[in-house]
Amino acid sequence: MKKIALLLLFGGLTLIEFSCEKDENKTGDVMFWSDFNSSPIKVYINGDYKGRIYSYYGNAPDCGSSGCVNIVLNAGTYSYSAETEDNSANWSGSITCRGDDCTRMNLTDGKATPNF
């Protein structure tokens, strides 16, 4: 009887382990945008150049909007840095990418503000 109970317990745990999707296997969208009228802004994720913001919006644009830096990343937390091409402003911090979602980060005058 104990063997059957152990087999059922092990089988149930195995089923649970394989049926749960792990977030780190998902990807999500991250978009950097700005309402700060400056020279273009270069964006880096974990030290790697990802693109430049060259359009400015009064309100948070939809993910994938042109003139923004749009990136697909695995779910997780990343460091970012950004700077205007004329070196008049810079930003740094961390951003969390959630699987199957879009995270928007506004690089504005003197600060960065996440928009979900």
Can you offer a commentary on this structure?
The protein has 116 residues and is α+β, with helices and mostly antiparallel strands. The protein has one domain: Sandwich (Immunoglobulin-like), CATH 2.60.40. Helices cover 16% and strands 46% of the residues. The chain has one helix and eight strands. It has one helix at 2-19, and strands at residues 27-33, 41-45, 48-53, 69-74, 76-84, 90-97, 102-108, 111-115. The strands form two sheets. Strands 4-1-7-8 form a four-stranded mixed sheet, with no helix packed on it. Strands 3-2-5-6 form a four-stranded antiparallel sheet, with no helix packed on it. The radius of gyration is 20 Å and the shape is globular. The model is unreliable at 5-22 (pLDDT under 50).
Task: Describe the structure concisely.
This protein has 116 residues and is α+β, with helices and mostly antiparallel strands. It contains one helix and eight strands, in the order αββββββββ.
Helix-strand layout with pairing:
Layout: H1 2-19, E1 27-33, E2 41-45, E3 48-53, E4 69-74, E5 76-84, E6 90-97, E7 102-108, E8 111-115
Using brief descriptors, characterize the structure shown.
alpha+beta, 4-stranded antiparallel sheet, 46% strand, Immunoglobulin-like, 4-stranded mixed sheet
